[in-house]
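Field reference: sequence -> structure
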Amino acid sequence: MHVCASAVFHILTAEKHGILVQFVAKTVVYGTIDPVTVVTVSSTSAPDPVQRRTAYARSLMGIYGATMLALGAAFGPYVEAGALLILSFAFVSGWPIALGLTNTHAARVTLGLVVFAALGAATFGTLTTTTFVAVLAIFGVFLTEMFRRDGRAQLIEHISATLAGAMIVVSGSLWIHAAELERGPDVIIVSAITLAVVALMHAFETSAARVVGFINGIFFGAGTAFIVQINLATGLIIGLSVGLLYTVSARAVEALEPAGKKHLGTTRAMFPLLALGIIGYLLAAYLV
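Structure field:
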């Protein structure tokens, strides 16, 4: 069979129902059609409306949580404790499911007890009391795993996930200690504004939005620090920390199994708010 060496590449693009389909077909001018016909199909789907609405809802939850932190700073430690009680249980509710733990009930009970103990210690005790609660939480996590009767599947995963959740909750309780310091409320307000701005940027699930959120976090952290007249370095550290926490949470979600992602919206929104507590307290205590 004589086949001419010359060939024609025909590209046809068609857009239908938000899907771009590209056919690249190789045909031969003379002779029969080359049996090695190449067809390449590439598709770019439109953004999933459900995923987009979920991102918007998560962003709103982050903004509401930051507003609750700011209200606590304005009205005192008891209001701060009430706000953190809501934020902490919102975080705890999805943490075990999002991380794919097999015994979510045990993890939730343990974390729930840590929430009550940490917030109670921060509200009615001292920093030493909160430190004592953090130490007890470590023992509590191991004791919970010792008394499991389900074969202790995923033992290492359960211990590490529950322990990490407990430390995040204890970190959140340090906002109460920060509110009791002289310039603590100012640090909380700067943190709340920065958290709200970065949460808004992360409503758009793109790398560009994350970069913009990171930059805006630093900018608004420094700007609000200047407005409330606290150390500019404090605002920069807050902005940098918020940007990093949101970036870490976004990257962590990408590494999770799809089954866990749908449960992570509330937990992901609360994570930066609580994890920033230890940084906020240290800044209020030593740098302002």
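Note: Residues 1-46 have pLDDT under 50 and may be disordered.
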